[in-house]
């Protein structure tokens, strides 16, 4: 499939909805953001401020785009800035974390309606060379009163990053991929579990009830492949591929852990468009 280097009206809208919305290697010990995290926050915020300077962090030679509706290259980002330069856009990064050469951000946006989303940027040296994202329209608070973006933000358990990533990967693979309900109990501290999914209530009981209700609602949900597990401290983001009622779907799930248990969860769920509609050849993942 040939690549498209110009932005059509449809791809411009998709690009607007694909870039996230404020906050050397990781958060410093006093909680300040690392240099790369600051660059990502400034880059995203530039969609609101129309500041050209933060775009310098994007490599002019290589910028691989995994949003299927957006062409590769830094010029796509510059084009977006010019389109949203009307003073109406809002970009508010709520959380940002770093894992090796990857920085991932959790953001609230206002472009064509309010959105919640995750963005992942890969660095080579001091420049961004690759981008992934997943966005979902911002819903009303869930039955427990939580929104898709509120909740804890502070890092903890800094020395437990690898253990926390392993814990969360095991949970996703055993429960969401293999659908082993018997495995649930070992991942939670009783019924303590803060839930930010718009349709699910707090607690392990809320998860069990939500999944038990899917067949009656005519919903067939499948997690098939875990592509990435990124984390800093006690925050872990898992990027998975699956389907809902046969529609290819991207799942981004972020978890906060505490004392070896899962304590809090945020997510975005988005359909993957048909390959014939893609504006690049890189795929969603």
From TrEMBL:
Domain SnoaL-like: 168-265
Alphabetized SUPFAM superfamilies for the sequence: NTF2-like
Signal peptide: 1-24
Keywords: Signal
Domain of life: Bacteria
NADP found in the keyword field: no
InterPro entries on file: NTF2-like_dom_sf, SnoaL-like
Keyword match Aminoacyl-tRNA synthetase: no
Record's protein name: Putative SnoaL-like aldol condensation-catalyzing enzyme
Organism of provenance: Allosediminivita pacifica
Taxonomic path: Bacteria, Pseudomonadati, Pseudomonadota, Alphaproteobacteria, Rhodobacterales
